[in-house]
Amino acid sequence: MTWLVTGGAGYIGAHIVRALAAAGLEPVVIDDLSSGHAGFVPDGVPLVRGSILDRPLVEDTLREQEVQGVIHVAGFKYAGVSVQRPLHTYAQNVEGTRVVLEAMDAAGVANLVFSSSAAVFGTPDVALVTEDTPKHPTSPYGESKLVGEWLIADQGVATAGSPHPLRHTSLRYFNVVGSGDTAVYDTSPHNLFPLVFEALLAGRTPKIFGDDYDTPDGTNLRDYVHVADIAAAHVVAAQRLAGGQPIEPAYNLGSQNGLSVREIMDAVARATGIPFTPEVAPRRPGDPDRIVATGELAARDLDWANRYTVDEMVRSAWEARRGATTAAS
């Protein structure tokens, strides 16, 4: 039972590949390595180097590898940068998804797990986000993920009476952190954990943007979820699709309670053994006090749970990052 993971050489994708293999499924990866790393793909897992925009390549891979389903993780994931590069964002995330769907249809592959994003909600005016919370994305990245969900849903309707009707689900989540394997770590130059780690390694003081929010400690409250939990939910979703079990069109992989930025900073100091007092910088425009999602539906259907404490999340991320430094020296 083979599953294609687009973007499987990236931080999240590589964890999904490992989770698939651990569940007895056979992963194959397609990745252009624009932000992924060939070294993140385990030995023995086929790596097809190329873009999801290359329709013949995607279709040939689906046929040659006898793929049963696709976990579509590939995309341009930088919300802030997407404001400066909207055309690139839409090409990778919207056109890329369309091409994947077209190739799947041609190859008769009818199961799809879409790695969406909580960015589809924008800055909701509710404390706890549910799947039905109105979608008001505030960046081209969030917009592109929402359009991707629409494309997939429309293709599901269009193929309902065909020999291979598309079965699909979209998984939405906020801040993915930690590491489930010291060989894989978050290399994004825009995410909180790498930013804090790189600052500390360079002898700089990490920053907190605003400490006067309406939260218990004055700093933003957000969902932080461990990458291994995210990967496990993707695998269960794939298994439900392949087994013909009922599945919702979308799930929020939320923490229910969230963590503050200061709680993260305190945990970083504990994990790294580097004492520091974060520099407090001015608020960033548009940053809401709190955005946290419920994971009740995912807990019901996808065995979703937050299995890691904040210290375990930070420690696993730090050990993987430190291991990368050791390997490079």
Automatic annotation (TrEMBL):
Cofactor: NAD(+)
Pfam families: Epimerase
InterPro entries with a match to the protein in the record: Epimerase_deHydtase (IPR001509), NAD(P)-bd_dom_sf (IPR036291), UDP_G4E (IPR005886)
UniProt pathway annotation: Carbohydrate metabolism; galactose metabolism
EC number per UniProt: 5.1.3.2
Keywords linked to the UniProt accession: Carbohydrate metabolism, Isomerase, NAD
Molecular function in Gene Ontology: UDP-glucose 4-epimerase activity
Reactions this protein catalyses: UDP-alpha-D-glucose = UDP-alpha-D-galactose
Domain named NAD-dependent epimerase/dehydratase: residues: 3-254
UniProt similarity note: Belongs to the NAD(P)-dependent epimerase/dehydratase family.
Entry-linked NCBIfam families: galE
Name of the protein in its database record: UDP-glucose 4-epimerase
UniProt organism field: Microbacterium elymi
Gene name linked to the record: galE
